[in-house]
Each structure stands twice: as structure tokens, then as C-alpha cells.
Specification:
single chain, 98 residues, alpha+beta, two-stranded parallel ribbon, two-stranded antiparallel ribbon, 4 strands, 19% strand
Length: 98
């Protein structure tokens, strides 16, 4: 997730009026303390949620952490991906252009 954060930061800077970036730290691999420390070192400018019980993992049937889910304007899943090689910016910009 930290490897993808620069892309989320760029999305917020470029398209903050048109998109809502929300980061979810899942309790499976994160502690509240670690998330707080990260936010103290880097204020992303978008909401950071702590999912202690993994509800987001279950809701999106995530088989791993570090998953990106992009929802369209109607709340429908338009993209999911895993890993650091994702083009999150390109994905969102294509969605905005359509």
C-alpha cells in the first residue's frame, strides 16, 4: 500500500474535486499504532480508515491486502487490482474521461 500511496496523493492533487480517495488500513496486517505513526509522518489529505475486523476485506472479497478498488460515480466497482505495478492514475483518468 505504501508503494502505491504516491499515486493516491497525485490523484488527490490532480482530481480532488472529482474523485474521493479513501485509504483503508485493514487490521490483519496493520496496528492502530502503526497507522497513526504513518499518518503523523505523512498527512495524505484524504480519509484514512482503520478496519479492525476486516469488514472491507469481506465486502470486496479481497484475497489479499494492498488491493485497490475503484468505484464509479454510481458506486459500482469499475476496477480492482493488486500489487505495486498498478496504473491507478491512468485507470481513474480513463474512468473520468468516459
Amino acid at each position: 500500500c505504501e508503494a502505491l500511496q504516491p499515486q493516491f496523493d497525485q490523484l488527490q492533487a490532480r482530481h480532488g474535486d472529482d474523485v474521493n480517495v479513501v485509504a483503508v488500513a485493514v487490521g490483519v496486517s496493520q496496528s492502530v499504532r502503526r497507522v497513526k505513526r504513518h499518518l503523523e509522518d505523512h498527512d495524505p489529505g484524504y480519509p484514512y480508515l482503520y478496519d479492525k475486523r476486516g469488514a472491507a476485506v469481506r465486502a470486496y472479497n479481497a484475497t489479499t491486502t494492498s488491493i485497490v478498488v475503484v468505484l464509479d460515480a454510481e458506486g459500482k466497482v469499475s476496477y480492482t487490482g493488486v500489487g505495486v505495478d498498478q496504473d491507478v492514475i491512468g485507470t481513474v483518468e480513463r474512468l473520468l474521461a468516459s
